[in-house]
């Protein structure tokens, strides 16, 4: 079912697939894929809690140990986002990407990606790319979340094409799309997926609220540049490039 270059490790329960991968990075092979039925301590960016107690949802982490020096590890999050969107479109769901790491469906959050790079001294040890997708059920998000959580199962599709999604089949589809783009991505970085990524954005050319490096203000989302960073315009007309932060 899975791409031949992927080594799958399946667990009934983990605290976090990312935490498992990070703690065993030295023993895991390149392109190990950790999947757990549930997580007891799932998390997103900035250590936000992510309820991962629903069997049938997808909780997985892919291990990257061969990242060329010229590539920005953060762009692997975008490669994974394009891959998940492609798998969703293939099944009949218009999944959208919300920079930097959220996956949206009909205005609600259906999943998220958490990438973490690890180093030993000055040497790169590996990158873990965690993915959580609400296939069957959606958790209740924190009260300050700007949107509700949704699942593929309760979102449906007006076209009637949408297919019920089983976890392992969807995970295999995501990995297939990831590997189809992988070699070009290693050569060209974000440019290899830029067109697909921009086409999938949910907030393109819209007013957004930016939180980055202590900076918090409404801007207009103008574009994603060739490095995968967003460019926003202030109410005064000034352009600002954001490398990391939250967009609401």
TrEMBL record:
<feature type="domain" description="BPL/LPL catalytic">
    <location>
        <begin position="3"/>
        <end position="186"/>
    </location>
</feature>
<dbReference type="InterPro" id="IPR004408">
    <property type="entry name" value="Biotin_CoA_COase_ligase"/>
</dbReference>
<dbReference type="InterPro" id="IPR045864">
    <property type="entry name" value="aa-tRNA-synth_II/BPL/LPL"/>
</dbReference>
<keyword id="KW-0436">Ligase</keyword>
<dbReference type="InterPro" id="IPR004143">
    <property type="entry name" value="BPL_LPL_catalytic"/>
</dbReference>
<dbReference type="GO" id="GO:0004077">
    <property type="term" value="F:biotin--[biotin carboxyl-carrier protein] ligase activity"/>
</dbReference>
<dbReference type="GO" id="GO:0005737">
    <property type="term" value="C:cytoplasm"/>
</dbReference>
<protein>
    <submittedName>
        <fullName>Biotin-protein ligase</fullName>
        <ecNumber>6.3.4.15</ecNumber>
    </submittedName>
</protein>
<dbReference type="Pfam" id="PF03099">
    <property type="entry name" value="BPL_LplA_LipB"/>
</dbReference>
